[in-house]
Amino acid sequence: MLLVGTVGMAQPQALLIDRVVAVVGREAVLHSDLAQRLEQARSQGAKVDLEMACGELEDLLYEKLLLEQGRLDSVVVEEAQVNGELDRRIRYFASQLGGEKKLEEFYGKSIAEIKADFRQQVQDQLLVQTMQQKVTADVRLTPRDVQHFYRSIPEDSVPLINAEVEYAMVLKVPKPNEEEDRRVRRRMEEFRDAVVKGTKDFCTVAILYSEDPGSAKECGELGLVPQGVMVPEFDAVALSLKEGEVSQVFKTQYGWHFMQLIERRGEQYNARHVLMRPQVGAADLQVARELLDSLVRGIRAGSIDMGAAAQELSDDEDSKGLNGVMIDPSSNSARWDMGSLDQQTFFVLDKLKPGEVSDPQLVVMPDGTKAYRILRLIQRTAPHRANLKDDYRLIQQAAEGKARAKAVDDWVAERLKGTYVRLSAEHATCPFQHDWAKLEPTN
Questions:
Q1: d(CA 155, CA 398)
Q2: In terms of Cα–Cα distance, which of 362, 335, 334 is closest to 348?
Q3: Which of 2, 85, 336, 338 is most exposed, with the fewest beta carbons within 10 Å of its own?
C-alpha cells in the first residue's frame, strides 16, 4: 500500500510503504492510520504540523490500549449492535450524498459490499466505545459539583450560546398503492420465470431492469456477504437456496426481488439478484398530505397530542420513539443551533411561535423520493451567555466531560504500568500527555 508522507510536511514529499509506527500490547498502529487522520484534519482546514501529528497519534494509542484491554477482559460487542451501527452510518452517508444509489456509485460497490468492508472497523470502534464507557462508568456529579464547575469558569470565558430551537416532526413517506405493488410483483415473476426457463439471461435482466445500481452493472452479483449485513428477509432467502438455485419472488423494505445463489462459505454467501421498486404516484402523495392536514387540525384544536401522533404515525425512525423530537446528531441534543438547520427547516421554524405547528410541507428525501411532514416548534432561545438556569444541561455536560477526562487520565496511567508499548524512533520524542514512550512495561 502506498501512502503520502504527511507528518510536519506542507507538501507531499515521498511515497512510503505502509509500516508500523507503534505497538500497544498486541495492537499495531500503522502509518496509514495516522496519515488518514491527518488528511481528514487537513481537508477540514486544520493546520497539520508536528504537534497535531503527535496529538492524533496519542489518540490512536489510547484507542489501541482500549482495544487491547477490551480483548483481555473478553468484552463482547453484540452482532445486532454492529448491524445497527452499520445501518445508521449507511443512512447518514447516503443522506450526505443524495441517497443510497449515489453512495453505491461513490464507492463503486453495493450497499452489502460497503457494509462488509466496514464491518471490522465498526466492530472495533464499538468495542472502543464500550471500553470508554467502562472507564468512565463511575463518574457521577451532583448539582453542587456542576455549580462549582460553573463558578470556576472565568467570567470572560463563559461561552456565548447562539440562538437555538427545539422542534418535533411527523413525517409521512407515501407508500405505493396496491395496484402498483401488484404490477411490479407480476413483472418480477415474469422475469423470474423467463430466467428459470432459459429464455432470458439473469445477467441481462439485472443490467437492464434491476434498480439496485451497486449490483446491476455486475449482473446483479453482490460479492461475498456475511450473514447479518443484508435485511433479515434477504438473508433468509439466500441461506435457504442451493448453489445455482433461483428463488421465488420475495419482498423486502426496498422492493421486490428474486435471486440466484452463487456460492456459500460458512456464514457468508454470494448471490445475484434483481430488484424493482413500486413507484409512488401523485395520488399516493395526496393521501399523505390529507392525513397530515387532518392531523394538524386536530393538534391545533387540542384534540390530538403531537407526541402520541408521532409515535403512531411518523415514518422517521430516529424521532418517532422520542415523541417526534428531533435530535442534532452532532451534539446528541434536542437543542439545535439555528445556523446548523437546513434552509427549508430554518424558514419554517423561523415563522412559528413556541407551541405552534406548521402546515404540511413537501420534502424530498435523500434517496430522491417525496414525502410530507409537519413541524412543531417546542422552544426558541435567544443568543446569550451560558447560565445555570437556561443552560444547566450544557454546563453539566461540560463538567462531566472534565471529570471523565480525569478518569481516563488515571486509567491510562494505571494500564501503562503493565502494557507493552513500542514507538518508532521518529515518534518517541512526541510531547505526549501520557508516558507512551517507555520501552517496556514494569510489573
A1: 16
A2: 362
A3: 2
To which residue does cell 443568543 refer?
A: 383
Alpha helix positions (H), 73-136 = 79-97, 100-107, 111-135
**Across-strand partners of 144?**
none
Which residues are CB-contacts of 258 (< 8 A; sequence separation ≥ 6)?
Answer: 188, 191, 192, 195, 246, 247, 248, 249, 250, 273, 274
CA trace torsion 183, 187, 188, 193 (10° rounding): 140
List b or e across 185-205, with b for residues whose CB sees 16 or more CB atoms inside 10 angstroms: beebeebbeebeeeebebeeb
Q: Which three cell numbers stand for residue 228?
A: 447479518
**Confidence (pTM):** 0.54
- Among 358, 111, 137, residue whose Cα is nearest residue 253: 111
DSSP 165-225: EEEEEEEE-PPPPHHHHHHHHHHHHHHHHHHHHTSS-HHHHHHHH---HHHHTTTTB---E
**Do residues 226 and 268 touch, judged by C-beta distance below 8 A?**
yes
C-alpha cell at 236: 433468509
Give the 3-state secondary structure of residue 96. Answer: helix
CA dist 407 and 141 (Å) reads 13
Is 2 strand, coil or helix? strand
**Of all helices (H) and strands (E), which one includes residue 110?**
none
- 11-55 pLDDT per residue, tens: 333 444 578 999 999 999 998 889 888 888 888 888 888 888 899
291, 307 in Cβ contact below 8 A?
Answer: no
Which domains are seen in the chain, by residue range? 163-175+281-382 (3.10.50.40), 178-276 (3.10.50.40)
Cell triple for residue 424? 518508532
